[in-house]
Every structure is written in C-alpha cells, then in structure tokens.
Design brief:
Blueprint lengths: L1 H20 L11 E5 L5 E7 L5 E8 L9 E10 L3 E10 L2 E12 L3 E11 L2 E10 L2 E12 L2 E6 L1
Length: 157
C-alpha cells in the first residue's frame, strides 16, 4: 500500500512539473514581491503569484524581543511554496540598513533541499539560496529581502 501511495505521489509531482513548464516564458516578465511597512510593524502576511502563476505565501514577523525604535529591530522572514518548500531567516535592521542575517531555516515537502547558503549581499539586500531537487530534476531557489524607505521587500528567487 505504501508503494502505491508513493507511486501516486510521484505521478502527481511529475504531472505538476510538466504542467508548470508550459508557463516558464513568464519568468522574465513577472516580478512579485511582498512589501512590509516597518512603520506599521507586527506580523504581515502576503499571498502572491510567482513567475509560474502559482501562489506563494510570505510572512514577515517583527520579533518582539527588540526595542520599538525603528533603528534597531529584528524580523523573521518566511516564504512558502505550497507542496514544495518553506524557507526563511532572520534579518536585523539598524538605521534603515541590514545589519546582519541569521538563523536560516528550510523545510522540504517534496524532494530535497541542498547547498543552502544565507548571505548578506549588501547593507540593502540579503539572500537565502539553495538547490531544490525533485525526481532528479534540480532547480535553484531562494528568498531575497531588500530594504528601502522603511520597507522590507521580500521575493522568491
């Protein structure tokens, strides 16, 4: 019985990959990002469409242990690609710049994730990159955060 359910699951994933490959032309034309207003703060949830027309969920949470001063705050970033993976990290903001990033995390629902690396690209950008492999097909993925004008902008790679 387990073998049958694994087989059905693999067929579903393979069928999903085949269907999604027909919309790959949109990847260069579609730019989707969540814009978190740090002046409002708290937890803000976003439902967006990725470049393949699939829903993604982004949650940005202001960590409560930090001071209320805008110059010194920590945020938890999380992006979920349903039936694929959830990934994220913490970003520390000081004086409207990214001071540091830490605590990368990911959970894979289908396939596996490897080569995960979190990097502060600059004082305005941080990126978590990884390789997601399903049925032997590897794709690069990740989560990127930019800061500008007291707003965090989070997108899927």
């Amino acid at each position: 019985m387990k073998t049958l359910s694994k087989f059905v699951s693999m067929l579903f994933v393979l069928f999903s990959i085949i269907l999604s490959s027909s919309t790959s032309v949109l990847a260069a034309e579609y730019d989707s990002e969540a814009v978190y207003d740090m002046n409002i703060g708290g937890t803000q949830n976003f439902v967006l469409e990725d470049s393949k027309g699939k829903e993604i969920y982004i949650t940005i949470l202001e960590n409560s242990l930090q001071t209320r001063a805008l110059e010194n705050k920590s945020y938890s970033i999380s992006l979920t690609a349903p039936l694929s993976w959830t990934a994220g990290y913490n970003v520390v903001i000081r004086n409207n710049l990214i001071s540091s990033v830490n605590s990368p995390h990911y959970k894979c629902y289908t396939g596996k994730i490897s080569s995960a690396a979190l990097k502060k690209d600059s004082s305005k950008q941080a990126t978590l990159r990884f390789t997601h492999t399903v049925l032997g097909i590897s794709t690069r993925g990740g989560v990127r955060t930019n800061i500008a004008d007291n707003k965090l902008k989070v997108s899927r790679l």
